[in-house]
C-alpha cells in the first residue's frame, strides 16, 4: 500500500509561501470547513479575514440544498463570520438562475426543500409546494394521480419528504424528452456528527431513484460539476486554474470540483474525509488538518 506522502502533500509553510502570491481567489466549502452545523471551526474566521486583508476574493460554495442564500447569510451573521451576499454561491440559488438562463418560464416539478422552493419563487418560477405528497395505499389507484399538463423541467434537491409518489410524478414528466432534468447536487450522505450510528442519505439517493425508471441523467449544478465554475465566473470573471484555491472537506464534491476545474485544491480534515481516504486518482493538491493552519502560515 502506498503512503499518503505519495498520494497527496501536506501543506507546509514553505509550500504556502510559494503558493500564496499566485492565489487571487479562494473558494471554500462551508460545513466541515468553516463551521460544523451551528458552531464555528476554531480559527476559521481569522483565516478568512487574513485572506481578505491580502486582497484575496472569497467565495463560499455550498452544495447544501436544504438552505437558501438568505438563510446562509443569516447563518454567517449569527456565527459572526463576515460574508457579502455576492460571495455566497448556494446551489439552490444557482439552480434557479440556471433554469432562468435556460429560458424556462413555465411550470416546474420540484422534489426539494422549502429553501429550493423559495429560490425558484424568487426568480419568478412556478412549481409545486414542498412537503409530503400523500397518496392512496393501493398503488393501482394512482392512475388518478393528477399531473400538470406541461412541465418544462424536473428539479431535484434534498427532500426529507421524498416518496415513491414523487418519483412517479417526476418520471412521468420526464417521459417528455423536452422536459429538462436538473439536480442541485448529488451528495451521497449528510454528515451526522450527532447520530454517528445513522447513515443519512442525501440528494444522490433521490437522483438515483428518478434515474432508475427514466434512464435520464440530470444536469448537475453543484460540486463537482464544472458548470458551477462557469456560474462563479459570472461574478469573478478572472477565476482561473493558475489563481484559484479550492478548500473542502469532501473528496467527492469539493476536491473533485477543484480538480475537474483545474484549480489548486486543499483538503481539510475537519469534516467528511481524512488523509487516509485519499486515493491517488482523486488526490487533492495538498491536505492539512484544519483551515485554521493557514493562520500560522500568514503571520
Ligand atoms: Mg463540507
Give the tally of structural domains. 2
**What is the number of helical segments per DSSP (H or I, 4+ residues)?**
11
Radius of gyration: 20 Å
Bound molecules: magnesium ion
Largest sheet: 7 strands, parallel
Structural class: alpha/beta
Report the strand count. Answer: 16
CATH domain class name of the largest domain: Alpha Beta
**For the terminal residues, how far apart are their CA atoms?**
37 Å
Tell me, rounded to a whole number, the average pLDDT.
Answer: 93
Record the strand order, biggest sheet.
1-16-15-14-2-5-6
Instruction: Please trace the helix and strand order, writing H or E for each element.
Output: HEHEEEHEHEHEHEEHEEEHEHEHEEH
Residue stretches low in confidence (pLDDT < 50, at least 5 long) are: 1-5
Kindly describe this structure.
The protein has 299 residues and is of the alpha/beta class. The protein has 2 domains: 4-63 and 223-297, Rossmann fold (3-Layer(aba) Sandwich); 103-219, HAD superfamily/HAD-like (Rossmann fold, 3-Layer(aba) Sandwich), CATH 3.40.50.1000. The chain contains 11 helices and 16 strands. It has helices at 4-7, 13-19, 44-53, 69-78, 91-101, 114-122, 164-173, 203-214, 226-233, 251-261, 293-297; strands at residues 9-10, 25-28, 35-36, 39-40, 57-62, 88-90, 107-111, 126-127, 153-156, 180-183, 189-190, 200-201, 219-220, 244-248, 264-268, 286-288. A 7-stranded parallel beta sheet has the order 1-16-15-14-2-5-6, sandwiched between helices. Strands 8-7-9-10-13 form a 5-stranded parallel beta sheet, sandwiched between helices. A hairpin with a 2-residue loop joins strand 3 (35-36) and strand 4. It is elongated, with a radius of gyration of 20 Å. The chain starts with a helix and ends with a helix. Bound molecules: magnesium ion (MG).
Amino acid at each position: 500500500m502506498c503512503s499518503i506522502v505519495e498520494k497527496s502533500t501536506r501543506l507546509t509553510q514553505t509550500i504556502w509561501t510559494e503558493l500564496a502570491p499566485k492565489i487571487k481567489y479562494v473558494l471554500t466549502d462551508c460545513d466541515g470547513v468553516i463551521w460544523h452545523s451551528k458552531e464555528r471551526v476554531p480559527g476559521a474566521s481569522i483565516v478568512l479575514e487574513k485572506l481578505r486583508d491580502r486582497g484575496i476574493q472569497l467565495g463560499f460554495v455550498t452544495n447544501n440544498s436544504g438552505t437558501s442564500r438568505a438563510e446562509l447569510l443569516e447563518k454567517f451573521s449569527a456565527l459572526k463570520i463576515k460574508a457579502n451576499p455576492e460571495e455566497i454561491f448556494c446551489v439552490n440559488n444557482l439552480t434557479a438562475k440556471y433554469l432562468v438562463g435556460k429560458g424556462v418560464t413555465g411550470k416546474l416539478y420540484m422534489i426539494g426543500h422549502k429553501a429550493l422552493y423559495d429560490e425558484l419563487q424568487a426568480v419568478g418560477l412556478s412549481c409545486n409546494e414542498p412537503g409530503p405528497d400523500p397518496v392512496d395505499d393501493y398503488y393501482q389507484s394512482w392512475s388518478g394521480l393528477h399531473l400538470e399538463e406541461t412541465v418544462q423541467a424536473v428539479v431535484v434537491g434534498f427532500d426529507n419528504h421524498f416518496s415513491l409518489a414523487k418519483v412517479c410524478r417526476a418520471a412521468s414528466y420526464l417521459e417528455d424528452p423536452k422536459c429538462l432534468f436538473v439536480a442541485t447536487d448529488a451528495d451521497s450522505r449528510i454528515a451526522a456528527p450527532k447520530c454517528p450510528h445513522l447513515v443519512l442519505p442525501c440528494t444522490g439517493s433521490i437522483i438515483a431513484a428518478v434515474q432508475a425508471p427514466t434512464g435520464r441523467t440530470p444536469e448537475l449544478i453543484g460540486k463537482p460539476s464544472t458548470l458551477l465554475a462557469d456560474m462563479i465566473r459570472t461574478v469573478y470573471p478572472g477565476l482561473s486554474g493558475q489563481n484559484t484555491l479550492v478548500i473542502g472537506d469532501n473528496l467527492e464534491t469539493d476536491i473533485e470540483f477543484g480538480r475537474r476545474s483545474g484549480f489548486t485544491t486543499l483538503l481539510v480534515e475537519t469534516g467528511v474525509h481524512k488523509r487516509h481516504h485519499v486515493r491517488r486518482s482523486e488526490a487533492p493538491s495538498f491536505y492539512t488538518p484544519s483551515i485554521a493552519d493557514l493562520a500560522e502560515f500568514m503571520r
